[in-house]
Write a structure and sequence with these properties.
By secondary structure, the protein is mostly beta strands. The chain has one domain: Beta Barrel (Cathepsin D, subunit A, domain 1). 6% of the residues lie in helices and 30% in strands. The strands form three sheets. Strands 2, 3, 4, 6, 7, 8, 9, 10 and 14 form a nine-stranded mixed beta sheet that branches.
């Protein structure tokens, strides 16, 4: 789990006239995201590998992208940052340290917001850039997963999410997961 210090909450009491509430709109009917035994074709059981995928980031294919439901932030490692064509002037300040990489707080070098494409979905994602030697190029956490309404399954080695074209999927790159992505490949 990766998390930062939360900003202190301030409670404000506001008194207002009671308005008669109208029923809210019903949520729209979203397609169901399901996993079944057909998703296990090509998956050798048993295993306990993490879900590691490929994404397009800033016009490049980035391998060794770890899907971490325990992380509250998206993290990019400095080596990946440089290989994607960025430099120090592209960073904005990131004021809070991250915890859980080691016993000490880790201060990001800054943050950057490149476009990330997952199949037909593209969105700008805020990454905290850190300078640590770690086994993945990028960690995608709950912020991104929630933004694209993704449902990951480590058992099925799949990430599924709704799009205007229906439910899309990204298959896990299992050939990277067991060896923890030793080469940090980024392809043009």
């Amino acid at each position: 789990m990766i998390y930062d210090l939360l900003t202190p909450l301030t409670v404000h009491a506001i008194q207002a006239l009671q308005k008669q509430r109208t029923p809210s709109k019903q949520p729209h009917e979203a397609p169901s995201i399901i996993f079944n035994d057909f998703d296990l074709i090509g998956v050798t059981l048993p295993y306990s590998d993490p879900l590691v995928i490929e994404l397009h980031v800033n016009r490049f294919v980035v391998e060794c992208v770890f899907i971490d439901q325990g992380s509250t932030f998206e993290v990019m490692y400095y080596e990946t940052f440089v290989k994607l064509g960025f430099n120090q002037s592209d960073l904005s300040p990131a004021p809070h340290p991250l915890f859980s990489f080691n016993a000490n707080p880790e201060y990001p070098l800054g943050k950057i917001t490149p476009p990330v494409q997952a199949n037909s979905r593209t969105m700008d994602v805020v990454f905290l850039v850190i300078k640590l030697p770690l086994p993945y190029n990028i960690i995608m956490g709950r912020t991104w997963l929630h933004a694209i309404q993704a449902v990951p399954s480590t058992y099925h080695q799949l990430l599924r999410f709704p799009t205007q074209h229906g439910i899309e999927r990204i298959r896990g790159s299992r050939h990277f997961a067991p060896v923890f992505c030793p080469h940090h490949e980024i392809l043009n």
